[in-house]
Structures are given as structure tokens and as C-alpha cells.
């Protein structure tokens, strides 16, 4: 593993749901975490939220190996096409979330490749493995860098519990099962970097599992 591998967290700001009936007309302000990972020569980008230019600046002159989208929600993909064009790189999304992609971008331009369970990406001497973690959305994934015990959890796992499951395509029992069987089995020291907010660890979240089930969210 290269000692040059590092993670850069880029916080981008935007508006979620403007013009959609389930949100206020002006939408809801929101901040997202975008992660640029790699070494001095190449990088992978995890999510593409709000501000393509800011993320592109974080990549800099490095070779962009791809943009991995943790799920299809608007605030994680709304800058995806602009960022892919700006960096001349590929977009990856789990196919079960194409319907959400199409809500934001339509059908004329689709992601380049399916982000399948078990897909492995190599950058800066590090392997990142895709873990399908449905529940928040059908195609939600997490990305695990075992060499540094770090999990990019998208909106599946946060400090304090699972991601939201309020939509008709979401499933609370399913996200609980995803977290229990696929994430809480990772080493307790694993750092969890979610799509919004602060980092946590598997060890900090695992003891709360039964409490999440009891509260129902």
C-alpha cells in the first residue's frame, strides 16, 4: 500500500427538492460530503454533490479514475454529469437506483457503468470494495477501504443510526439488515465517513443496533 494514499473531504452546499411536492417550494438547504481519495497521481471521487467545480479543484491535475455514486438521490448525483465532463471520467451507479438518477437527469445521459456488489477499484495502492447496502434506496452502496479500515457509507449509516427510510421505495427492515450483516461485521476500529455530517466508527455504532430497531428509524 502506498503511503501517499489520503482522503480529502469536500463539503458542498446546495438545495434539495426545489419544486417537488414533498418539499417546500424553494427546497431545503443541505450540505453533502464528497470524498476524493487517492495519491499524488490519481484519484477516485465518491459522490458528486452540488458543485462540480469545487470537487474538480480538489482532484486537481491528478488522473481521475472514476466517480462512484453511493446512491441515486438528487443531492448525491446532481453535479455528476458536470463533474464527469469536467474531469473526462466515468460515472458508476448501482442499477437499482437508475430510476432516481432519471428523476434528476432524465434518460438521455446515464451512468457509464453499473456499480455492482463486490466491485473493486484500485487507487494509490489501495483497494476499495463496493458493498451493496439497500434500504435507504434500493441501489445504495457503501465503499470499504480495508487497508485503512475506512468505510464510505453514503446515506446508509450515520453517527447515531441508519439513513432515512421515509420514501415508498425505502425499507427500514432492509437497511437494518444491510447494516447488521454487511457493515457491523467490519472491524470495530473502522472509521465511517457518511454522506452528510461527522465521522463515526463501527465500534461506536454497533452497541446502538437494538435501540435503532426499537425506535423504528
TrEMBL record:
Keywords: Hydrolase. The keyword Hydrolase applies. InterPro entries: MBL_Glyoxalase_II, Metallo-B-lactamas, RibonucZ/Hydroxyglut_hydro. SUPFAM superfamilies: Metallo-hydrolase/oxidoreductase. The keyword Ribonucleoprotein does not apply. Residues 31-196 form the Metallo-beta-lactamase domain. It holds the Pfam family Lactamase_B. Transmembrane segments: none annotated. This is Zn-dependent hydrolase. It comes from Leucobacter komagatae.
Amino acid at each position: 500500500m502506498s503511503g501517499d494514499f489520503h482522503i480529502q473531504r469536500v463539503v458542498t452546499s446546495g438545495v434539495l427538492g426545489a419544486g417537488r411536492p414533498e418539499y417546500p417550494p424553494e427546497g431545503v438547504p443541505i450540505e453533502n460530503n464528497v470524498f476524493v481519495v487517492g495519491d499524488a497521481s490519481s484519484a477516485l471521487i465518491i459522490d458528486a454533490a452540488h458543485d462540480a467545480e469545487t470537487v474538480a479543484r480538489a482532484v486537481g491535475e491528478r488522473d481521475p479514475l472514476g466517480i462512484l455514486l453511493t446512491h441515486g438521490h438528487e443531492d448525491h448525483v446532481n453535479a455528476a454529469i458536470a463533474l464527469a465532463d469536467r474531469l473526462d471520467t466515468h460515472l458508476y451507479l448501482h442499477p437499482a437506483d437508475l430510476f432516481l438518477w432519471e428523476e434528476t437527469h432524465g434518460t438521455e445521459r446515464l451512468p457509464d457503468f453499473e456499480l455492482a456488489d463486490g466491485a473493486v477499484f484500485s487507487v494509490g495502492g489501495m483497494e476499495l470494495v463496493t458493498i451493496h447496502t439497500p434500504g435507504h434506496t434500493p441501489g445504495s452502496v457503501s465503499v470499504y477501504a480495508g487497508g485503512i479500515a475506512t468505510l464510505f457509507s453514503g446515506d446508509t449509516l450515520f453517527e447515531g443510526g441508519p439513513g432515512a427510510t421515509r420514501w415508498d421505495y425505502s425499507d427500514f427492515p432492509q437497511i437494518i439488515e444491510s447494516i447488521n450483516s454487511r457493515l457491523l461485521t467490519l472491524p470495530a476500529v473502522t472509521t465511517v465517513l457518511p454522506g452528510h455530517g461527522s465521522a463515526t466508527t463501527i465500534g461506536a455504532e454497533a452497541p446502538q443496533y437494538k435501540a435503532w430497531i426499537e425506535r423504528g428509524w
